[in-house]
Amino acid sequence: MNGDPAMTTPTLPAERFEADRPRLRAIAHRMLGSLAEADDAVQETWLRASRADLDEVENLTAWLTTVVSRVSLNMLRSRRTRREEPLETQVGEAAVDAGEGADPEEEALQADSVGVALLVVLDTLNPDERLAFVLHDLFAVPFDTIAPLVERTPAATRQLASRARRRVRGGTPAPAADLARQREVVDAFLAATRGGNFDALLSLLHPDVVLTADRFVVPTPEPITLGGARPVAHSAMAATGRALFTGPALLDGRVGLVMAPQGRLRLVLLFTVTDEGITRIDVVADQERLAGIEVAVLEG
Q1: Of 8, 56, 84, 128, which residue is 20 to 30 A from 168 by alpha carbon distance?
Q2: Are 297 and 133 in contact (CB under 8 A)?
Q3: Sheet (strand 246-251) strand order
Q4: Residues lower than pLDDT 70 in the chain
Q5: Phi and psi torsions of 35, nearest 5°
Q6: Helices H / strands E in the chain, number of each
Q7: Alpha-helix residue ranges (DSSP H) falling in 219-274
Q8: What pLDDT is stored for residue 81 in this prediction?
Q9: CB atoms within 10 A of CB 118
Q10: Where is the RNA polymerase sigma-70 region domain (predicted)?
Q11: What is the structure's pLDDT at 97?
Q12: Alpha helices per DSSP H over 115-223
């Protein structure tokens, strides 16, 4: 037999790998929260695939899914071990820093397509829970396939996904009618802020609306309080850049907004909504306060 490795070791054609790249990238993004890290995971998957003997692989898509999942899981475990994210990172900087090598606009679009709130909740899960939920609930991978990746039985892996699912859904929300009204107003607030539509934003605010922001939001030496629709609307217009990485979520059972570049929670906006409009907005970036707020995914 010819001893040339190029003749004896099967290689994966690039075009065949490219056919699976969108799925692999989507899995890695939901695992890691960052497009830059997801692309690193996909690149490592390609390198492993190009070196592997694939003669015995019956389902290449399933094999690649396993590889990118294992790579992503290792990256996530390593990140948790290093605790690489400094708590004192400024929110304003985080909003425009989508990660080295990533396009901030693409990062924001991908976060929107997945759901910013989902990425935030996934970031609170331990790596094994995150893998079980992402692969099973989002990509329909059987528990029998996931179990070896987390070194558990299929039944135990099912429990991992179940715990993650409860976190995603959160506790008991406000009544459906209240949530629908809150969602309508909060979605309109986000759209007006992103679009720079001052008049639309003004129409959502009660004339005597109050906005508070803790000292970590800007940051400033002291918390900030603004009163009146126009000052609050002008303040919101100044945060258009942050709105790119912001999405609706359930915050302690009420509809609010979470800002999370790379899927990592930086601040929340808590709204008080009445029939007369938004009467209060509390902007929270204090990590201790954020840790006490239950974030869950809105249905629909």
Answers
A1: 84
A2: no
A3: 224-227, 205-213, 277-284, 267-274, 254-259, 246-251, 295-296
A4: 1-10, 80-102, 300
A5: -65, -40
A6: 16, 7
A7: 229-237, 240-243
A8: 63
A9: 24
A10: 17-80
A11: 43
A12: 116-124, 127-133, 139, 143-150, 154-169, 176-195, 198-204
pLDDT, residue 298, reads 92
Show the domains of the chain with their CATH numbers.
5-169 (1.20.140.160), 176-296 (3.10.450.50)
Record the tokens describing residue 184, joined without a space: 């309508």
272 forms beta bridges with 280
Residue with tokens 């910013």: 116
**pTM for this structure?**
0.85
**pLDDT for the residue numbered 104:** 74
pLDDT one-digit tens code per residue, 31-77: 999 999 999 999 999 999 998 888 888 999 999 999 999 999 999 99
Name residue, tokens 């890290």.
37
- Kind and range of the H or E run holding 205: strand 205-213
In sequence order, the β-bridge partners of residue 211 are: 226, 281
Q: What is the pLDDT of residue 82?
A: 56
What is the SS3 assignment for 210?
strand
pLDDT at 207: 97
- Measured in whole angstroms, the distance separating CA 30 from the mean position of its chain's CA atoms is 7
Dihedral, CA of residue 299, residue 134, residue 91 and residue 225, to nearest 10: 20
- At residue 258, φ and ψ (nearest 5 deg) are -120, 135
Q: What is the pLDDT of residues 140-153, one digit of tens each?
A: 999 999 999 999 99
Q: Cα–Cα distance between 263 and 260 in angstroms, integer?
A: 5
Question: Does residue 13 sit in helix, strand or coil?
Answer: coil
